[in-house]
Amino acid sequence: MLGNWSLGDYFKDEQIEWMFEFLSKEIKLDMNRVFVTCFRGDENNGIPKDTEAAQKWQTLFKSIGIEAEIADMPEEKGLQNARIFYYNAKKNWWSRAGIPEKMPDGEPGGPDSEMFWDFGEHLNLHEKSKWKDEPCHVNCDCGRFMEIGNNVFMEYIKVGDKFEKLKQQNVDFGGGLERMAAALNDNQDMFTIDLFIGVRKKIEEVSGKKYGEDEKETYAFRVIMDHLRAATFLIDDGAIPSNKDQGYFTRRLIRRAVRYANDLGVTNIFTPEVAGIYIEEYSEHYPSLQKNKELILNELRKEETKFRETLEQGIKEFEKLTKGFQMALEKTGRAITEISGKQAFKLYDTFGFPIEMTEELASENNLTIDKAGFDEAYVAHQELSRQGSEQKFKGGMADHGEMSVKYHTATHLLHAALRQVLGNHVEQKGSNITAERMRFDFSYNDKMTSEQIKEVEDLVNSAIDKDYPVSFSEMTVEEAKAKGAIGLFVDKYGERVKVYTVGDPEQSVLVNASSPTFSREICGGPHVEHTGVMGHFKIVKEESSSAGIRRIKAVLE
After folding, report:
1. Are residues 412 and 544 in the same domain?
2. 487/525 same-domain check
3. 265 burial class (0-12, 13-18, 19+ CB within 10 angstroms)?
4. Residues 35, 179: one domain?
5. What φ, ψ does residue 83 adopt, rounded to 5°?
6. Which CATH number belongs to the domain containing residue 471 in this structure?
7. Which residues of the chain have pLDDT under 50?
8. How many angstroms separate the Cα of 430 from the Cα of each of 79, 193, 259, 396, 555?
9. Do 248 and 242 meet the contact criterion of CB atoms below 8 Å apart?
């Protein structure tokens, strides 16, 4: 992704002029094949049509000898021999919440101006598409036009039920590097550009299939190439495959890629080979990929190995389900078209089959899922698990006595120290605290070395010796994240949370002996008032808790 921001330094006129120069002179696109869209305006909300942007584009096209007519309502009238088009807020407005009607009070937003590449009328893409009976226009999705960039002009703020101009007007540009390469190659298929050659050949090698020969198989190739590249970068960034937060996105990407590889007949572990090619391709510009290569390849290998067992079982159970539907049809003459929530949850809970994959397979078999029923079964399962957990220890603590409170604070110091020594991908997965000891579970795949254990102990004890103050403040989850707080199970909290800081609450967190702030974490408490009362921290055991989860047992002496 390409991008640039202006926070009040320049605005619409300069951005469009530089964008035109970039497309026409820097990457040398044929501007006769570039089309532009602008915001049509919104009378209901008192937001005017963005004539300024449209007219600027028109002037720039004219400067190189291209007449650029401006047209409205292309959805109804088609291209109208125009080059610049107005669209409504669903297409040419940006805010975090979406269209103006959905924006809350105080949220900024603004019109955008998008650029499209025309692959050509001669390809007859519109006539071949499901939109063939509708007018062809740049946003019709028939495949003839491809968006290559988007200029967002943040110039409004919602105040009550009205929109006012922002005092500082900003620009946010996002452009597709690979889409621009596809335009330069004049080839709709972005997966034929140079960056994908090595990976494409590897998938052809392990599958025995040829990219581009079969439509369904080609789609599988694209899913694999796209998802495994994203997963490679996510793991490098610390989003280790898991069932929570960013790690869940990584897991979903890997599992979907493996599922489509399975469709291509790939039965051996292949994801590390693909990731290895991406690492070599991108390391010059992203050196951390090479630094974290072993971690990336190991995580992919483990996730693929684990999921292949789940995938095989899940597909067998899904096929049993659809076979039962077919038998019911033959017996009763009535077709079953919906997988019940309980059936979908059984695939998830008993066989570990992700609901997203069940949904995808259902769609391929012309079935639907009772998603509300699945959600109901899922919530009921969570409540049952939570009740069992609460009966054992509330918040991981047996009581709120003096020693338990000290151990609770020690979990924060340990969490921060582990992330410093082992990496920021480490996350707390649970704790169990009594007045005699603490137990702390965390995400990590390898046994800690004696050197790592000693380094963690030393960091925690240095924080105790420094006698940091421990304080809390209340804020939103977003504010907490902005201040560098780490937090577990944030989905269970309300609009405001308590954030406990070990050290100076006004300073950034830096885990070392001289830092003014050692730890900042979302937590309900309770904690000691300062760390000097805690005693000496000693790790007595480090062991495996479950797959991908390590456990530390420690005492305060």
Report:
1. yes
2. yes
3. exposed
4. yes
5. -125, -20
6. 3.30.980.10
7. 388-394, 489-490
8. 59, 45, 31, 7, 17
9. yes
Residue 66 is assigned to a structural domain of this protein: yes
Q: What is the pLDDT of residues 41-61, one digit of tens each?
A: 999 999 999 999 999 999 999
What pLDDT sits at residue 388?
46
Based on the domain organization, do 482 and 541 belong to the same domain? yes
530 backbone dihedrals φ, ψ, rounded to 5°: -155, 150
Same domain? For 382 and 426 the reply is no
Could you tell me the pTM of the whole model? 0.65
Confidence at residue 232, expressed as pLDDT on a 0 to 100 scale: 97
Residue 384 token pair: 């049952």
% of the chain at pLDDT higher than 70: 94
Cis? peptide before 272, omega within 30° of 0: no
C-alpha closest to that of 119 among 105, 106, 136, 104:
136
**Domain limits at 524?**
402-556
In one-letter notation, the amino acid at residue 381 is H
Query: Please, is 52 exposed, middle or buried when counting C-beta atoms within 10 Å of its C-beta (0-12, 13-18, 19+)?
Result: middle
Query: Are 351 and 374 part of one and the same domain?
Result: yes
- Regarding whether 27 and 49 lie in a shared domain, the answer is yes
The answer on 368 and 466 residing in a single domain is no
Per-residue pLDDT at 58: 98
Residue given tokens 């919602």 in the structure block? 158
**Run of H or E including 128:** helix 125-128
